[in-house]
Amino acid sequence: MFESTTQVRVRYGETDKMGYAYYGNYMLYYEIARTDALRSLDLTYKELEDDGILMPVLDLQSKYIKPAFYDELLTIKTTIEELPGVRIHFKYEVFNESNDLLNIGNTTLVFIDAKSKKPCSPPDYFMDKMKPFFR
Amino acid sequence: MFESTTQVRVRYGETDKMGYAYYGNYMLYYEIARTDALRSLDLTYKELEDDGILMPVLDLQSKYIKPAFYDELLTIKTTIEELPGVRIHFKYEVFNESNDLLNIGNTTLVFIDAKSKKPCSPPDYFMDKMKPFFR
Amino acid sequence: MFESTTQVRVRYGETDKMGYAYYGNYMLYYEIARTDALRSLDLTYKELEDDGILMPVLDLQSKYIKPAFYDELLTIKTTIEELPGVRIHFKYEVFNESNDLLNIGNTTLVFIDAKSKKPCSPPDYFMDKMKPFFR
Amino acid sequence: MFESTTQVRVRYGETDKMGYAYYGNYMLYYEIARTDALRSLDLTYKELEDDGILMPVLDLQSKYIKPAFYDELLTIKTTIEELPGVRIHFKYEVFNESNDLLNIGNTTLVFIDAKSKKPCSPPDYFMDKMKPFFR
After folding, report:
1. Which residue, among A10, A11, A12, A16, would best test binding to C if mutated, counting the most C CBs under 10 Å from its CB?
2. How crowded is residue C42: how many other Cβ atoms within 10 Å of its Cβ?
3. Is there a contact between B12 and D13 if contact means CB atoms under 8 Å apart?
4. Where are the domains of chain C?
5. Edge-to-edge, what's the strand order for the sheet holding D101-110?
6. What would the pLDDT profile of C48-93 be if each residue is shown by its tens digit?
7. How far apart are CA A13 and CA C27, in angstroms?
8. Given A86, D40, D60, D89, which is the most exposed site by the fewest CB atoms within 10 A?
9. Which residues of D touch B15 (CB under 8 A)?
10. Percentage of residues in chain D with pLDDT exceeding 70?
11. In the 3-class helix/strand/coil scheme, how is C53-90 assigned residue by residue?
12. What are chain A's partners, defined as 3 or more CB pairs within 8 angstroms?
């Protein structure tokens, strides 16, 4: 299992007239969380794209438990529970500064070859970084 | 069962460097779809808020089947399958101009009293519009 | 001079906790306004990109006069005051349903060759559509 | 004169199909830059709002010099050149990791009383923090 945490502050432009972080903006927070999770292993999504690999999102679940408010510093705990193959699953738990659990998210992404647009395995250097966490 | 369709064009600012509509922007499309669904019954979310009722999203599932591209005119079929109570479920099916199914979404929203922040029943005028579809 | 009008409804996700359409979202409205202006001449920005021409924004001015609120149907009057060359200027006036002027915007975009990334003239078919308005 | 710097990383969802940070997202970057500028003086915009003061944007200019790309860590230098009164001016200079100047922005915001919606002076504690920089 691989775990990582990242922090993100709720921007004014991310709130809505209810005063909450808009429900659609959690997808941006998840994106930051998973790229930071990879970055903590010296893997950048940018590098993967430069190598001709795209990682579109296949599916997404999100559970909104409590609202996040403007200027709150959110902590996101990101977990990869199983060794990635052609697909990679991320789980996100979003906490506020009082350590209340605000949101739980799950996304599945697929590795695809940018040219053929076909699913593919992650590159070896990616798997080499991942494997130690799943023994 | 209640059904409604709405259309939305993919904005340039909604695309990402993959050239796809960014996965987080479907939540904006769902929002438009459900407010248009209510509007087709002469119900506006704005009016509900003015009456002191908020409708935050409780949970969300989204399945990304094919990408949507810049400037495509998407058609969203919105379905309410069961009579709303304190909670209301919307299902969304997003199609492109070739009638390919791109995305399926589900959201649960809850009616809450803006003052007490407690769940509440939808107002009578709301239910009066809904009931004829669930006989 | 070329004029066009387009309409856009303020989405919930575009409001902020003040209850106003967030100031940064006017740039999305301007984008819609100028692409609709071109579309009214059977010119699509998508087609230009497919022909290897990009049109990034060079500069932008925006004056916020009155706020736009959730669910308001805004009318945007878009004007091209001078015949485009390598650069094209758009002016936007945003009105609410009471015909109050809410916002005035100006953008300059430049035609660039996608390969060389150098400024270029707009294609002939583009100029052919434009010229009749500037005699 | 008051100066502050802040950093922001370009999110995937902030890019567009050109591969650039979308021009409308700079307004989010400016927002982060000015709230961080105030925060460096122990002033938070949230606190001002809680005290019944809003700060909508009155006008905005932005000059796009070079594009920002996905995952770049941008540095924004924020400057307040004159002592704020009812209005406050911020200037922003956005640099990439190679220290190239990408964008220059200017915004004017106005202090308004949330109840009366009329312009007002900033509170004393705000001015007390500002004054030392303008002697």
Report:
1. A16
2. 9
3. no
4. 2-133
5. C2-9, C73-80, C87-95, C101-110, C57-64, D57-64, D101-110, D87-95, D73-80, D2-9
6. 999 999 999 999 999 999 999 999 999 999 999 999 999 999 999 9
7. 13
8. A86
9. 16-17
10. 100
11. EECCEEEEEEEECCCCECCCEEEEEEEECCCCCCEEEE
12. B, C, D
Q: Which fold has domain C2-133?
A: Thiol Ester Dehydrase; Chain A (3.10.129)
Question: What is the DSSP code (8-state) at residue B65?
Answer: -
| Contact between chains at B60 and A60 (C-beta distance less than 8 A) | yes
The answer to whether A46 and B8 have CB atoms below 8 angstroms apart is no
3-state secondary structure B48-77: HHHCCEECCEEEEEEEECCCCECCCEEEEE
CB A111 within 8 A of CB A117: no
Total count of residues recorded for chain C = 135
Chain C residues whose CB is inside 8 A of the D17 CB are: 49
Rounded distance between C-alpha atoms, residue A23 and residue B24, angstroms: 9
At residue A78, φ and ψ (nearest 5 deg) are -110, 135
End-to-end CA distance of chain C: 8
Q: Which CATH number does A2-134 carry?
A: 3.10.129.10
* Closest chain D residue to A36, measured at CA: D71
Instruction: Please tell me the distance from the alpha carbon of residue B127 to that of residue B83, in angstroms, as a whole number.
Output: 9
Residue type, position C131, single letter: K
Specify whether the CB–CB gap between D102 and D74 falls below 8 A.
yes
pLDDT above 90 coverage of chain B, percent? 97
- Which residue in chain A has the smallest CA separation from D36? A71
Whether C135 shows a pLDDT value over 90: the answer reads no
- The alpha-carbon radius of gyration of chain B (Å, integer) is 16
Per the rule left: phi > 0, alpha: psi between -120 and 50, beta: everything else, A19 is left
Q: Which two tokens stand for residue A99?
A: 């350590």
